[in-house]
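Trying the structure run again after the queue cleared.
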Amino acid sequence: MPLLCVANLAFNQDMSEQELLGWSNKCLTQCFNADAADKLKKWELTLTPDAFVRLRKTYANGKQEYFSMHLRRLEDLDYWGTVAAGNMVLRAKGDDVIVQTYNDRSGNVDSMATVFSIPVKNMEPERLDSLRNALLYFKKKNL
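Done. Tokens:
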């Protein structure tokens, strides 16, 4: 299926849970803006079947950043930017976002945050709304 077609698929109430999970992961993968981070070697952004959103970024110098949030702790989703590029911000109910760094010159850090900001590109309003609905579906399912 061409990228444009997958990008424009909308959240469909008749999708099976597995199809919705697959659609959500394709959407996250296609819209992640790896160019927003300096010297990013590789990255992985996923929505897991047990409703965690996880982002792991590995930089060319070996430093890793890991962010994870369970959707039951999702307060809401905001978007700052334009269709071309912006940040999708998952707001947690409290300090519910796990933030970890590894191989950092400043030392490894384990902390918690209230927001999980994901750099994105090509985020049409309909696509953002569909992704928000899918995330809210998984939140509700895992309450």
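The longest strand covers residues 40-47. Worth checking whether this holds up in the mutant runs.
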